[in-house]
Amino acid sequence: MKKTITRIGSRRSERISSRKTGRRIPKGVIHVQASFNNTIITITDIRGRVVSWSSAGTCGFKGTRRGTPFAAQTAAANAIRTVVDQGMQRAEVMIKGPGLGRDAALRAIRRSGILLSFVRDVTPMPHNGCRPPKKRRI
């Protein structure tokens, strides 16, 4: 006769549930990537693990409307709403890209009530970049 082993709970499911409820994040980093076509907001903790993210596309904007400042503002508000519930009070902001959503996203972050320690522009700039192609011969 076979003995049945009673399982109290699997370790995997317990770890996931405890992490979702018990993780308090007092300080984090908000990354804003603003291109001409879309704006992506990613919120991480200090170690760089993603806590929440949102983009203009996931908020329901399609086509050319994704690149608008209003879409960036909505995306920032969506991303921040979940992190404020987890207890984030302070944040650093890293802004990358030339898009229209830069200022609107920053305005939405300021309005959320999170204290900003600094705002840094991390847009990559070439130091004279790649070699240009040869001139066309006529």
Automatic annotation (TrEMBL):
Pfam (any one): Ribosomal_S11
Family in the record: Belongs to the universal ribosomal protein uS11 family.
HAMAP family documented for this protein: Ribosomal_uS11
Assembly behavior: Part of the 30S ribosomal subunit.
Signal peptide boundaries: none
UniProt-listed PANTHER family: 40S RIBOSOMAL PROTEIN S14/30S RIBOSOMAL PROTEIN S11 (PTHR11759)
InterPro entries in the record: Ribosomal_uS11, Ribosomal_uS11_bac-type, Ribosomal_uS11_CS, Ribosomal_uS11_sf
Membrane-spanning ranges: none
Protein name: Small ribosomal subunit protein uS11c
Localization per record: Plastid, Chloroplast
Biological processes per GO annotation: translation
Naturally occurring in which organism (per UniProt): Anemoclema glaucifolium
Any GO CC annotation of this UniProt entry: ribonucleoprotein complex
GO molecular function list: rRNA binding; structural constituent of ribosome
Domain of life: Eukaryota
Keywords from the UniProt entry: Chloroplast, Plastid, Ribonucleoprotein, Ribosomal protein, RNA-binding, rRNA-binding
PROSITE patterns given in the database record: RIBOSOMAL_S11
Disordered: annotated span: 1-22
